[in-house]
């Protein structure tokens, strides 16, 4: 059974559908990249899985249980975490407070200690305001915040969008390490080639539908994918 | 003379600061200007007056003021503002003005419209570094300092306070961090009500208690909240102090009638130099 199963998913913010019947799965322990042109529905898909889309129909199942009608709080409790594209840390709270404020965490003190061990840069700046962190540190904090509740599935919406180019590679390395922590990943990303290079599978959306789906290596080698969606190797 | 006015200004500024704290907390988290904050103060002043008349104790009066204003504030949220959540800010502002009128009308019906005073015993001023300070001013300043310490303690040292600040910072991120909005809102309205209650009690002790007292002070509280940087609790308190001191110190030069206007001149002058206020981003409690 897939960890996440999406079937016939449609929906949007207003009356117009942005997602037009998406079928997709995320398997246990895999990283799945969702790529596509601007306006293809990538971030909308991420929001729909997290329960943040005002209108959605179809089926979203976690471990076989339909969660489409469940509110955000229930999805969090079931093990889904979400790192938004922008505003992914509480800028006015300290690093430590960003972790302390996450609710529904068993043995929160021990979990914070684990995460500060895993992200030493944060440990050194635990009393600093999150708004004063560098882009790379902010992203580490965003990941640590999302990992607080020991999720099984992490949804990353454009994780490298706000990073300096020099930080992008280490960011993808961080994402590559998540399955070893028991976390599967659904990653929406503009830097499709780099994202696919750390992913097991990839999916390309076009007009709110799945245009291509397959092994990441296969998509990277695919002439049509390169021509229409990914750009040539060496590009972004 | 200047020293005495300065002391009076500090006490007056603490009252404004507490009222502004109530305004800015609601603005930062619930994201609308709560025009009922002044009348919530009045409810606290009357509850304090009743408790003081019954017991003669200012401590009990303070407890009664906090309890009554907290309850009024929470009721306003549950009965009016919660059902209107997600409506435009203008709708919430008009609703808050309506709540303010209702509170004032109820207080007028119960207590009448004549002015009432706290019967506090007269005491000789305390001499300190050439200043003659009324003991009641020291008491009120101590009460205000304790109330502010408690409010900032809640905001910065407790889990619910962190959650309130997180919601103020980014409500969407707070939602995906598992923070329950209803709990945060209940805590917010209780805390804002308590701050308004202490402000109402202090204002009542310093001046007179009447159904209109809070409404008349609301504009100054709003000015302090804006001057401090909307959504900044520390900014609201410091701006309240600044306006209070400016009003009292300017009294010999501009007269009693114009001292309130002078406070707004100070506010405008600061905002011209620093449009976001003393501590400000434009949104969110920090």
Automatic annotation (TrEMBL), chain A:
Transport found in the keyword field? yes
Q: What is this protein called?
A: ABC transporter ATP-binding protein
SUPFAM superfamilies in the record, alphabetically? P-loop containing nucleoside triphosphate hydrolases
Gene Ontology molecular function: ATP binding; ATP hydrolysis activity; branched-chain amino acid transmembrane transporter activity
- Would the keyword Secreted turn up in this protein's UniProt record? no
The Gene Ontology biological process terms listed for this entry are: L-amino acid transport
Q: What InterPro entries does the record point to?
A: AAA+_ATPase, ABC_transporter-like_ATP-bd, BCAA_Transport_ATP-bd_LivF, P-loop_NTPase
| Keyword annotations from UniProtKB, A to Z | Amino-acid transport, ATP-binding, Nucleotide-binding, Transport
The family annotation for this protein states: Belongs to the ABC transporter superfamily.
Q: Which residues form the ABC transporter domain?
A: 4-232
Q: Which Pfam families match?
A: ABC_tran
Top-level taxon in the UniProt lineage:
Bacteria
Q: Record the organism.
A: Neoroseomonas oryzicola
UniProtKB/TrEMBL annotation, chain B:
Lipid bilayer topology: Multi-pass membrane protein
Mind listing the GO biological process terms from this record? D-alanine transmembrane transport; L-alanine transport; L-isoleucine import across plasma membrane
Task: Report the subcellular localization.
Answer: Cell membrane
| Molecular function via GO | L-isoleucine transmembrane transporter activity; L-leucine transmembrane transporter activity; L-phenylalanine transmembrane transporter activity; L-valine transmembrane transporter activity
From the record, what ranges are coiled-coil?
none
> Where on the tree of life does the source sit, at the highest rank?
Bacteria
Task: For this UniProt record, give its keywords in alphabetical order, as a comma-separated list.
Answer: Amino-acid transport, Cell inner membrane, Cell membrane, Membrane, Transmembrane, Transmembrane helix, Transport
Which InterPro entries does this chain map to?
Answer: ABC_transp_permease (IPR001851), BCAA_transport_permease (IPR052157)
Q: Does the keyword Cytoplasm apply?
A: no
Entry keyword annotation includes rRNA-binding = no
Matching entries from Pfam families are given as: BPD_transp_2
TM regions (residue ranges):
58-80, 92-113, 133-155, 184-205, 217-244, 256-273
Its Gene Ontology cellular component terms are: plasma membrane
Q: Which family does it belong to?
A: Belongs to the binding-protein-dependent transport system permease family. LivHM subfamily.
- Protein name (record): Branched-chain amino acid ABC transporter permease
């Amino acid at each position: 059974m897939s960890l996440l199963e999406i079937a016939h998913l449609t929906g949007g913010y207003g009356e117009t559908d942005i997602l037009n019947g998406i079928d997709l799965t995320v398997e246990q322990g895999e990283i799945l990249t969702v790529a596509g042109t601007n306006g293809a529905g990538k971030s909308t898909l991420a929001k729909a899985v997290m329960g943040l889309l005002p209108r959605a129909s179809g089926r979203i199942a976690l471990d076989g249980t339909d969660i489409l009608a469940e509110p955000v709080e229930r999805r969090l409790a079931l093990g889904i975490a979400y790192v938004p594209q922008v505003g992914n840390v509480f800028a006015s709270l300290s690093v430590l407070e960003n972790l302390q404020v996450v609710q529904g965490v068993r043995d929160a003190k021990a979990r914070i200690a684990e995460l500060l061990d895993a992200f030493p840069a944060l440990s050194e700046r635990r009393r600093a305001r999150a708004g004063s962190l560098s882009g790379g540190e902010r992203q580490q904090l965003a990941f640590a915040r999302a990992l607080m509740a020991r999720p099984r599935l992490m949804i990353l919406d454009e994780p490298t969008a706000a990073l300096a180019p020099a930080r992008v590679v280490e960011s993808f390395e961080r994402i590559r390490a998540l399955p070893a922590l028991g976390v599967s990943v659904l990653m929406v990303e503009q830097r499709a080639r780099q994202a696919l290079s750390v992913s097991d599978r990839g999916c390309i959306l076009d007009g709110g539908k799945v245009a291509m789906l397959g092994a990441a290596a296969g998509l990277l080698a695919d002439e049509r994918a390169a021509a229409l969606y990914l750009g040539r190797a060496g590009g972004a | 003379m200047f020293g005495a006015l300065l002391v009076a200004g500090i006490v007056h500024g603490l009252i404004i600061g507490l009222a502004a704290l109530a305004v800015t907390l609601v603005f930062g988290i619930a994201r609308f200007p709560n025009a009922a904050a002044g009348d919530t103060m009045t409810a606290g002043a009357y509850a304090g007056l009743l408790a003081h008349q019954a017991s003669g104790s200012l401590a009990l009066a303070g407890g009664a003021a906090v309890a009554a204003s907290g309850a009024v504030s929470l009721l306003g949220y549950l009965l009016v503002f919660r059902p209107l959540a997600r409506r435009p800010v203008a709708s919430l502002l008009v609703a808050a003005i309506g709540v303010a009128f209702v509170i004032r009308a109820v207080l007028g019906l119960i207590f009448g419209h004549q002015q009432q005073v706290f019967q506090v015993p007269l005491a000789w001023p305390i001499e300190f570094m050439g200043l003659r300070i009324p003991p009641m001013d020291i008491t009120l300043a101590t009460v205000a300092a304790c109330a502010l310490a408690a409010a900032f303690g809640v905001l910065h040292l407790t889990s619910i306070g962190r959650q309130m600040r997180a919601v103020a910072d980014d409500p969407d991120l707070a939602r995906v961090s598992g923070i329950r909005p209803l709990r945060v809102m209940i805590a917010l309205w209780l805390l804002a009500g308590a701050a308004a209650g202490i402000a109402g009690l202090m204002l009542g002790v310093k001046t007179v208690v009447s159904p209109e007292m809070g409404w008349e002070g609301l504009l100054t509280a709003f000015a302090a909240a804006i001057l401090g940087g909307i959504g900044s609790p520390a900014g609201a308190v410091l701006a309240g102090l600044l306006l209070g001191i400016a009003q009292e110190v300017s009294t010999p030069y501009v007269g009693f009638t114009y001292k309130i206007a002078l406070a707004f001149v100070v506010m405008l002058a600061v905002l011209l130099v620093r449009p976001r206020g003393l501590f400000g981003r434009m949104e969110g409690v920090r």
